[in-house]
Amino acid sequence: MQAAILGVKMSYLPEWNQARQRLSRRYHVLLAEADLLGKLCPQTVLQNTEFVYHLYEQAGVREYWVVHPTDHTIMVFKLAEDGRYGRYEMYEQSEQLTVGILPELILDLNEIFAE
Question: What mean pLDDT comes out for the span 84-105?
């Protein structure tokens, strides 16, 4: 039964991917036109971080990152066994970051923040 459903879904996959790519391009254009990044960072980054911090904690998000594109830093919050975030870890451009939920994925932040 599952194979039959998967077979039907797979036939629509290229169409869904094209639609997703169109929406992604449109989203990118709208964000650029609205200059939202300029409005959100860096002045309100602490307010936004505090707001989502509690929501993500309640939802049980194991790890989330706050990327500071102008400072070239990343704050990583990890959910502890008690279901709460401890102190964040700060990574700078010259460092490598191991993704907590994918330990085999190691990011070179020099590449991430390259201009």
Answer: 90
**How far is Cα 25 from Cα 18, in angstroms, rounded to an integer?**
11
**78 in Cβ contact with 41 (< 8 Å):** no
Report the alpha-carbon distance of residue 111 to residue 61 in Å, rounded. Answer: 26
pLDDT at 35: 46
Give how far Cα 85 sits from Cα of 7, 12, 18, 26, 79, Å. Answer: 41, 40, 37, 34, 5
By the 8 A CB rule, do 42 and 34 touch?
no
- Is it the case that residue 11 has pLDDT exceeding 80? no
Give me the long-range contacts of 43-49 (CB less than 8 A, separation at least 24). 49/75
Mean pLDDT estimate for the chain: 77
Q: Which residues contact 80 (CB under 8 A, 6 or more apart)?
A: 86
Does the pLDDT of residue 30 top 50, yes or no? yes
DSSP state of 79: B
